[in-house]
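Bench log. Compound arrived from synthesis this morning; before running ITC I wanted a structural hypothesis for how iron/sulfur cluster sits in the protein. Inputs:
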Amino acid sequence: MIYVYITKELRPFETDIRDLCLAFFTLQKITYIFDDVGADTICQCEGRACELRPYSSPDIVVKDYYNGTLDADRLTVKSEVKRQLYNYLSKLTGKKLLWGTLTGIRPVNIVTSMLEERARETRPCDGGSASVRPYEYSVRPCDEERHNRQPVAASCTSGKSVRDVMGLSPLTEIDNPIYKENEKIKEYLKKEYYISDEKGFELIKIARNEIKILERPEVRDYKNSYSVYVGVPFCKSTCLYCSFTSFNIEKFGKYVDRYLETIERDFNSRVGKIVGKRALQAFAPTNTAFTSTDKLQPLTLYIGGGTPTSLDENAFERLLTIIDKYVDRSKCIEYTVEAGRPDTITKEKLLIMKRHGVSRISINPQSFNQKTLDLIGRKHTVEDVIEKFKLARELGFDNINMDIILGLPNEHLFDVLKTLNGVRKLKPDSFTVHSLALKRAARLNFELAEWTKNYYLAGVGKREIDSMFKWSERLAEHLKLKPYYLYRQKNIAGNLENVGYAKEGKECIYNIMMMSERHSVYGFGTATTKEVFYENGGKRIESEEGYKSVIDYCERVGS
Ligand code: SF4
């Protein structure tokens, strides 16, 4: 338990302080000592029943970490609080964090904003020749907070030179404007957020890749489109680390019919048929970024969960038929089904997906070690993964993603290498590397003491987790997959990140849209925010919180 002293003035930054403390003390509980409660008592409520107890021999007390201004604007004060807290904790623990003071989910957005701003600044203005105006990043701090809502010195630790990382040739790099720009951004990130060169370059690389993807002809018009998400909250069993809305299909299977009826009703009442003008009228408030009423059609469609393929064949086909009826896919460039658990995939379901135009699926091993799969409650075998992957390929799926998780209980580097080798043999088109995150609602969180006592858990061996991450990067390179999106979570193994790698042209555009908050997403079913819009200035507007359970959804939408 880590106790953090917090004064009244610092209370607006409570979340930021907690998140940064968690980055130093992974998988620990943080408890605040509020000065207005009384320095001799500790509030232990953490959102549950409040119990004040005497302040005696806590594990670590973090206090007196801020002596800066409180008079500036919120963003300036917040940045300074985080920097001073970082210095304090770094001294206390002897640690330096690769991500510095950054604790937000979407750090890439900081760099894409800078690059896009720079592109606007340097837009050709004199008959076509670009006028490169100096741009001082340091005078225009990015708003990390905006990106938090809902993701080496000259040589980085992977052993590569900066030149290798950025893909520049040795002879031209010094004069290369991109190199210079990268250096400038890297310096800004270091000064503002204390980010290591390694992570700075990772962000720059992904941001540049993202911008390149967004310039493709089929994606370019994303502002005049939106994405549709359909949630199917059923799974065959609950994974140890799961914090999604997920219900055991065996127990809750009786609700499937009603759930599908409700989804249909939801589509029908909210959008009629999602085409052009009608979608705008049904969805868009007057101040959204949408200006063209006639072009509005979905760009991407994503069915996630849960595990959508937990539904039996009839129910699954019914779901896809409902979607066909209501979602106009004439301009849709990507249709993903998160098949996820291989034990839910059958030949018939793959053929159903083919018939309904699904273009991208996920088959997620998480680990190629049977012992781990059993331990974390995934009721499938390693062989299931291999068999279903091969079957999907035989049936013509040419865009298959695989997810793995680093830092699973009892997994050492050797186990992860076995997983990476399994992925290598199957050659997926994209590959997503997650680091185990301790989520509040997950079974792992409730049983943490037991798991920590009985199993080797992430966070114990930071170096080992780093190596796992490096080897995952190497595999992606070997498979010619480039990193294209990144997000971070709180309380994540090794204070690392989740990274999506893909072959060129096989990236998940929906993920980019979600992470970069570039256009609106309409959610149907449980576990979604119903509608997310972006105003012209990029301000996020969530129309209504999503539904927490199947019954909640059926009752509120179906009534
Ligand atoms: S498959 Fe995904 S949604 Fe289902 S229980 Fe596991 S983590 Fe949760």
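What the model suggests: The first strand starts at residue 2 and ends at 6. The pocket of iron/sulfur cluster is lined by residues 235, 238-239, 242, 244, 246, 305-307, 340-341 (CB under 6 Å).
ITC booked for Thursday regardless.
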